[in-house]
Amino acid sequence: MRIPAKVRSVTVDASPPENRLDRRKTRTRAALVKAAQTLIAAGQTNVPVLEITQAADVGMGSFYNHFQSKEDLFQAAVDEALDAHGAMLDALTAPLTDPAEVFAEAFRLTGRLHRLVPELSLVLIKSGTALVSSDRGLAPRALRDIEAGIEAGRFTIRDPQLALVAAAGAILCLGQFLHDNPDRDDAAASDQLAEDLLRMFGIPADEAHEICSRPLPDANPK
Amino acid sequence: MRIPAKVRSVTVDASPPENRLDRRKTRTRAALVKAAQTLIAAGQTNVPVLEITQAADVGMGSFYNHFQSKEDLFQAAVDEALDAHGAMLDALTAPLTDPAEVFAEAFRLTGRLHRLVPELSLVLIKSGTALVSSDRGLAPRALRDIEAGIEAGRFTIRDPQLALVAAAGAILCLGQFLHDNPDRDDAAASDQLAEDLLRMFGIPADEAHEICSRPLPDANPK
């Protein structure tokens, strides 16, 4: 079977732990990453390693078995949060065949995430514009979907990287906007921006509107 | 004379200093703000007040005559850098009558700024997504231009605030993209994204292209 274009270039290491020691190592690492994600979401990355290991309930010594530095841990925390979200999007959009709908659905689901999983949303926002050049998480997936849309003749985009710049900027600033304006409907705002981006990518207005009004699959965010 | 819509809601305090003491105070404050902008651009905001006053070549004691805290100073540094840039854009776009061209010209000039004035560009990027909700600097000006475009029947935008989200996201991530990809032409990328945004706002493709190909006024960035 041919691997579908939209999962071709993004892989996540999911090899299972092999024995008890491996399982413990995996748990320790996961606890550190989880603690780091909580600290990033709280804007408290300026804490000593000791405090991180205490929050993760692991021994101070085990930190350096997994990470060379705090920066190393925080980078892993951002990468893994966005990889996990990206993998979920890949799974949810797998049944779709139209690259325009794949892009729109991923954007609409990610827009809703800002309210559904505020912690992950804050990790995304705090990681900031670095998102646009990351080879992990959302950017490579969005670029893949944009290129698939061009290849399929759905998008009339001259420069896929600039289309990615627009999409990454929109999803980042949408998150900030939704946090700053709790009265705004996250679903309506996400759908409107996805529709705006589709029009920017060359989809006719009424079709863009219809695509972004379709029902979404259930996202199980945790 | 009626004040043109596009300068109505954004004002900058420019009252001149009155005597020698006032002039000295103004100089001290300006030196602190300039030092803070340099530190922000370098990503070094985690420094003691003493270091900031030394970099500004002012007495440690005078800091608290002007700012209540470091955070207060850094916020002022961001606000004033973007207000100054915004005021320059207002002056440069003043001769234009088409709101679509006003928006495009401001975006194209700001895109070029990422290479022309890297220090201001880094202040903009580091201030991050907070840009989208700021009542200073670029966001209120962009919203004003977007609303003028809707009022003039040029833009078919359902939600001006979401159009601002898209524009703010695009200018932020464009900056990051240009810093990460020094081989990319900043002028071409800025013009392409401005054209993409105009199309998103409802301007026909060929007209958006033509508007974003027009010659730009000379921006004197410093």
Computed over alpha carbons, the radius of gyration of chain A is: 19 Å
Work out the helicity level of chain A: 55-70%
CATH architecture title of the largest domain in chain A? Orthogonal Bundle
Question: What is the percentage of strand-forming residues of chain A?
Answer: under 5%
CATH superfamily of the largest domain in chain A: Tetracycline Repressor, domain 2
Return the domain count of chain A. 2
Quote the average pLDDT of chain A: 88
The assembly state of the depicted protein chains is homodimer
What does this structure look like?
Two copies of one chain form a homodimer. The first copy, chain A, is mostly helical and 222 residues long. Chain A has two domains: 14-67, Arc Repressor Mutant, subunit A (Orthogonal Bundle), CATH 1.10.10; 78-211, Tetracycline Repressor, domain 2, CATH 1.10.357.10. Helix content of chain A is 66%, strand content 0%. Chain A is built from eleven helices and no strands. Chain A has helices at 5-8, 20-41, 49-56, 63-66, 70-93, 99-116, 118-127, 138-151, 160-180, 186-200, 205-211. In chain A, helix 2 crosses helix 5 (70-93), helix 5 crosses helix 6 and helix 8 packs across helix 9 (160-180). The longest helix of chain A is centred in the middle third of the chain and has 24 residues, at 70-93. Chain A is elongated. Mean pLDDT of chain A is 88; it is low at 1-9. Chains A and B meet through helix 9 and helix 10 of A and helix 9 and helix 10 of B.
